[in-house]
Design brief:
Layout lengths: L8 H11 L4 E5 L5 E6 L10 H10 L12 H17 L7 E5 L2 E5 L4 E2 H7 L4 H20 L12 E4 L2 E4 L12 H22 L3 H13 L3 H14 L12 H10 L10
Antiparallel strand pairs: 1-2, 2-4, 3-4, 5-6, 6-7
Length: 265
């Protein structure tokens, strides 16, 4: 689970749990290490899944149907298993420091998520685009290693010194979907969470060929459902007025990435 160390992470976890009321919280250990502790909690409330569920209904795509987190010990076991599998494949995820039935402790892989970093760069569009491309390349590397994420929204990608890491593995899409659809789901989640910000920064047109190059490297079994989803969004791409609401505008911005695909793709 972690490299040999004289530090007693199990004792530290027990101490953190005595101080922690929320399901997940950040702690600084006695050795100065920054860690996150997740304790077993109730099943996630329905609102956590409305975002993906709404997109799935609009696109008529089961690939985006939310995968429920069962909570409790099952949720802890799921996150631990995903962290271990991704780490074994060489993916940058928080190291699993200690695991017990009702809680786990993870290391920290950054202070700012990619969505916040992109927002921070909104006045520097080329930099914002570069940060977005880092996320794109990091997801591609996950897929090249035969892996997939959970909810690959930009808020679940951590940015630190030009490096991208991944967090939040309370659910496992691989438990209900084949690998190509899990990977297609990653791409659609990332676009949905970032396209509107690219549009607001005025770099959406520059992002499309970068996206196209990333998709060209994917297998047909991944590329096909992504292209199908984006084609279904194509009619929305002209919507820009704010009265449409944030959810519709996110989909409208995402629809711009349909442009490279032919009707038969």
């Amino acid at each position: 689970m972690h490299s040999p160390s004289s530090f007693d992470y199990s004792a530290a976890l027990s101490q953190c749990l005595l101080q922690q009321n929320s399901n997940i919280a950040r702690h600084t250990l006695a050795n100065g290490e920054k860690v996150w502790v997740r304790r077993a909690g109730a099943r996630n409330p329905a609102w956590r899944y409305r975002l993906l569920g709404g997109v799935a209904r609009v696109l008529r795509l089961g690939v985006l149907t939310p995968v429920s987190n069962l909570g409790g010990a099952a949720g802890i076991a799921t996150e631990a298993a995903r962290l271990q599998a991704l780490a074994a494949a060489g993916i940058n995820v928080p190291p699993l420091l200690v695991l017990q039935q009702d809680a786990l402790m993870m290391g920290s892989i950054g202070q700012r998520n990619l969505l916040d970093e992109m927002r921070h760069q909104i006045q520097s569009p080329p930099v914002l685009l570069q940060r977005w491309q880092l996320g794109l390349e990091a997801i591609a590397q996950v897929h090249q290693h035969g892996q997939y994420l959970s909810q690959a929204f930009a808020r679940n990608l951590m940015y630190a010194e030009q490096q991208i890491g991944f967090i939040d593995f309370e659910d496992d899409p691989g438990s209900v979907l084949p690998l190509p659809l899990c990977q297609a789901r990653d791409w659609l989640c990332y676009l949905h969470s970032s396209a509107r910000l690219l549009q607001e920064a005025g770099v959406l047109d520059q992002a499309v060929p970068i996206w196209q190059a990333a998709m060209a490297a994917e297998t047909a079994s991944v590329h096909r459902p992504v292209a199908q989803a984006l084609r279904r969004l194509r009619p929305l791409h002209r919507l820009q007025a704010r009265f449409w609401g944030n959810d519709t505008l996110r989909l409208a911005a995402m629809a711009h990435f349909a442009s490279p695909y032919s009707q038969t793709c």
